[in-house]
Amino acid sequence: MQIESSPVLYAVDSAGIARITLNRPETGNAQNVAMTYALNDAFVRAAHDNAVRVIILGGAGKHFSTGHDLKDQTFDAVGRDYPLTSTWADIDLDSIEGWYGWEREAFLDMCRRWRSIPKPVIAEVRGACIGGGLMLAWVCDLIIAAENAFFQDPVVAFGVGGVEYLSHAWELGARQAKEKLFTTDRWTADEALAWGMVNRVVPLDALEQTTLELARKIAAKPAFALKMAKEAINGSLDAQGLQQAIDRGFALHQLAHAQNRLKFGGLLDPTGLPEAIRTSGEVCELVIGKPIGEA
């Protein structure tokens, strides 16, 4: 296991269950640059370890993830302290081209890599799963949600059409996807279950045990058969156009950033945000205007 100060914790039990834990509970597990690269390292580690049969992804503290940490200031370490993981090496946060390279490296390509891990991955979701948190849950094969879990993609309020891994229509259905994007409203664990986004909803105090029991049941199956089953189902979604839709969504996401740079001088459109956030200059994806403790 990594040291407790790490933004991501990693452990493997005797049944071959790898537990990856987002470990910034003081921020609701908001994802900064350090967490993104540590999470990638953990996923690759589990993928390469033949003793690992199933992977569980969860969050320390009250929340799964409140999204991207938009106040993160460590981008200049990318390529130095955090080696690039994709071929998009032209990262320059002062240009539209360079920002496209950053989001392609850290979000789109990361998500696709994690989705393609040839082992079952289960998301264990409690509390908030917002913005970039949705991306982490949606790349997992199964989602077990606590009764207190809630979900939200608030970025239309920021002047952007959706998070970078825009698979909403597949996860929620087109009508619900449009409503939740247009309004930026939250949805509950029970609603997510009814729409087919999550597999089970359980009491909070039963979340970890339920997820572990499911992981162990899956881990007892032949590993190669599990890999082929995952490939088959993912391939069926891709044949329906999932990957092309994500590519189009990502391109439109970057167009919105470019528009906001020209019109507002930054990546986000401030006009859709509450006055308290506009005047403070602080924006996080735990929207809108509610501190983590009130989520």
Give a quick precis of the structure.
This protein has helices at residues 33-48, 96-115, 132-138, 168-172, 174-183, 189-194, 207-219, 223-239, 242-264, 275-280, and strands at 8-12, 17-22, 54-59, 121-125, 128-130, 142-146, 150-152, 187-188, 200-202.
How would you portray this structure in words?
42% of the residues lie in helices and 13% in strands. By secondary structure, it is of the alpha/beta class. It has one domain (8-294): 2-enoyl-CoA Hydratase, Chain A, domain 1, CATH 3.90.226.10. The strands form two sheets. A six-stranded mixed sheet has the order 1-2-3-4-6-9, sandwiched between helices. Residues 276-283 and 286-295 have low confidence and may be disordered. It holds the Pfam family ECH_1. It comes from Sphingosinicella xenopeptidilytica. This is Enoyl-CoA hydratase.
Secondary structure: elements and pairs:
Layout: E1 8-12, E2 17-22, H1 33-48, E3 54-59, H2 96-115, E4 121-125, E5 128-130, H3 132-138, E6 142-146, E7 150-152, H4 168-172, H5 174-183, E8 187-188, H6 189-194, E9 200-202, H7 207-219, H8 223-239, H9 242-264, H10 275-280
Parallel strand pairs: 2-3, 3-4, 4-6, 5-7, 6-9
Antiparallel strand pairs: 1-2, 7-8
Protein name: Enoyl-CoA hydratase
Pfam family, one: ECH_1
InterPro entries: ClpP/crotonase-like_dom_sf, Enoyl-CoA_hydra/iso
What string gives the helices and strands in order?
Answer: EEHEHEEHEEHHEHEHHHH
What is the averaged pLDDT score? 90
Helical content class? 40-55%
Question: How would the global form be characterised?
Answer: globular
Task: Say what oligomer this is.
Answer: single chain
- Mind telling me the C-alpha Rg? 18 Å
For the record, what CATH class applies? Alpha Beta
How many domains in all? 1
Strand order of the largest sheet: 1-2-3-4-6-9
CATH homologous superfamily?
2-enoyl-CoA Hydratase, Chain A, domain 1
The biggest beta sheet is recorded as:
6 strands, mixed
Poorly predicted spans:
276-283, 286-295
Strand-residue proportion: 5-15%
In CATH terms, what is the architecture? Answer: Alpha-Beta Complex
CATH topology descriptor: 2-enoyl-CoA Hydratase, Chain A, domain 1
Distance N to C terminus: 30 Å
Total helical elements: 10
